[in-house]
Amino acid sequence: MKIAVIGANGKSGQLIVDELINRKIDTTAVVRQTNKTKAEKVIQKDIFDLTKEDLNGFDVVIDAFGVWEEDKLSQHVTTLQHLADKLSGEKTRLLVVGGAGSLYMDSDHDKQLMDTEGFPDMFKPLASNMKQGLDDIRKRKDVLWTYVSPAADFQAEGVRTGEYLLGGEEFTLNQSGVSQISYADYAIAMVDEALNGNHIQKRISVNSK
Question: What CATH homologous superfamily does 2-207 map to?
Fold first, then answer.
């Protein structure tokens, strides 16, 4: 397989690249600035400048793009639209590093995590934009997408246990009664999905064991 990781210089992107390389997968890092990953193959371009030709030939494109500045949060919507347009009608699958705020709190799907009382106000603008990106990609029947939401407590410096629990659209707690996942264990789940393709045009979620 040939897999490209967009936003590979980010914390999640670098760990996803590491996981792919450790499994001896042909990996290309797509970065805007100088490559900081272990990948030997690199496309240095802004995400909005990527063309169909740039993404041609990959089995999977993993979108690990992320921004935190308030005036740029809408790019979580526009970048995903751009990638979906470039992959429209193609066999290449698009996997997205998503957010937890859009996970549903019950089986009726009436309420999302970002709407709960304890959800931090500072994260609501980010969660809202990531939710909009998910809502938009759900409408794309012309793209082989999978959206992968982490647990509520997404730990950049968390340890790699090598295990995870796979869920669906709804917020879940693990056997310890918490919702958390390290970036490293999330990367394992992302690469598993990239290799297996078991959830095309679906949102899945990942929690620690």
Answer: NAD(P)-binding Rossmann-like Domain (3.40.50.720)
